[in-house]
Amino acid sequence: MTAVHAHFPSSDPQLDAPRAALDAFGYACLTVAQADGRCLWRSPLARRLMAEYFIGGHFERGFLPPELLLWLHREALRRRAGAPALDLTVLAQTPSPYNPTLSAAHVPSHARTKRLNKRLSFRLHEADADAMGDGQWLIVMSDIGSG
Length: 147
Description:
The chain has a single domain, classed as Beta-Lactamase, CATH 3.30.450. 33% of the residues lie in helices and 22% in strands. It contains five helices and five strands; from the N terminus they run H-E-E-H-H-E-H-E-H-E. A five-stranded antiparallel β-sheet has the order 2-1-5-4-3. The two termini are 31 Å apart.
């Protein structure tokens, strides 16, 4: 798999089949640059899940949300020190007075209860430096819980 442009081309015959296979099994994938959290490639399911779970527009602009970038940096350091991998699991964001950027208008009332049980799991894999370049990581996501 090669790194692609930041504009995320939608159709590349060599990548369409692997993307569809990953998405069909419920594994959303993206590759990111460790230095700045720039997303280099993402599957359609990754795009959908990130939009569903995170607000703030970072991912829409091609970057990891800050909380994921912090996890990426921590995990990269831990891995280099020989520590075992730790996955990250997040809850779907819901309206609250403590989260003014996500108002109740963003989430219909019938969907709020469902969202409380949803979780998104992240697993980090170091990308092959020869194929992808130094400092690039593969993140595999899985949507867990009721939805």
